[in-house]
Amino acid sequence: MNSTIRQNRIFKSLFVLTLLLFLSVSTNAQVTDVPPAGFDVIITNTGKIIHGKVTEVGLYVIRYKRTDIPDGPVYEILKKDVYAISYRNQLSEYLIPVDSTVFVKKGLEVKPIPKRGASILVLSKPTPITDTWYSNVRQGEIRLGFGFIRNYSKVKEVENYTRKLSFPAVHIAYLFPLRKSLDIGLVMGWASFEYKDKSFSEYDQLSTNRNITESLFSIAAIGKYSYEMDLFRPYLQAGIGYTNSSVRTEGEVTFTDDNRTILIQGGSRSGNFVIPIRFGTDIRLNNTFSAYTDIGLGLTLIQLGCVIKIGKE
């Protein structure tokens, strides 16, 4: 009888163990339908693909281990040289914008595809892409400013004349990015200055009164190199341009001995090539509007104005 009880206990124990083993296998099989990949994918700005296990994404470098030697040394790559990381859990991280033509030249194209609220990187055949120096012409900025303190004149001996108060010079420019930190474009300026000259000749007994108006127009092709900061964006601007000067003179000459008066009128036009060089800074107000101030060569010494960003970055 003891033998029979012993056999029943053994059968019950085996049954319980078999049931627990079955439940354990069933539970593990239902955890996930798609097991995650065993490695991460690092895609550089040049289109190079690195398979490994990312251990750290730092401020300046990304550290990873190679898949073929998981117990080997830790490798580093500069963060600025990496376009994106596709992690083994199918989540992706995009680090910086990149010129897509790099991938096209390698016969690949990187596309973000939504999946379960995230995005992954896939490689596919590229579509034709044309990238030229003017491809960002619609992603530029309009700069409108006013100039103060005359810096250019074709009037001879202008420092000897009395200057009248006049409206500030007006400057307008359109610049678009050529590459990182470098913008190119056109700038135009208008200015009008008025002078007054009064003189008397003892020898001839002549009294001369003249009003001189000089109208200036300038146009220049420029490049602007900027240094990006949080609030301020210092820049150096230089180029080559042409400035046109139109001078109109009106006045009268009076013979004091017999009170005769002669009206005089005259005018001249001239121009020359110039190299405008200016130093200044943009002051960021928000993503669309900024203010700016600069100093240098041009129609006026000092400029103050605003900047309006257009297009999508």
Write up what this structure looks like.
By secondary structure, the protein is mainly β. The protein has 2 domains: 40-124, no CATH class; 141-309, Porin, CATH 2.40.160. Helix content is 11%, strand content 56%. It has helices at residues 2-29, 101-105, and strands at residues 40-44, 49-57, 61-66, 75-78, 82-86, 92-94, 109-115, 118-124, 141-150, 162-163, 169-179, 182-201, 206-226, 232-255, 260-274, 277-284, 289-296, 300-309. The strands form 3 sheets. Strands 9-11-12-13-14-16-17-18 form an 8-stranded antiparallel barrel. The protein has a 6-stranded antiparallel β-sheet with strand order 4-3-2-1-5-6, with no helix packed on it. β2 and β3 (61-66) form a beta hairpin. The longest helix is centred in the first third of the chain and has 28 residues, at 2-29. Mean pLDDT is 79; it is low at 25-35 and 100-130.
- Number of helical regions: 2
In terms of per-residue confidence, which ranges show pLDDT below 50 for 5 or more consecutive residues? 25-35, 100-130
Main sheet record: 8 strands, antiparallel, barrel
Please write the CATH class name of the largest domain.
Mainly Beta
Structural class by sheet pairing and helices: mainly beta
Rg: 38 Å
CATH fold-level label of the largest domain: Porin
Which shape, going by the Cα principal axes?
Answer: rod-shaped
End-to-end CA span: 88 Å
| Average pLDDT score | 79
Order of helix and strand elements from N to C terminus: HEEEEEEHEEEEEEEEEEEE
Residue fraction in strands: over 45%
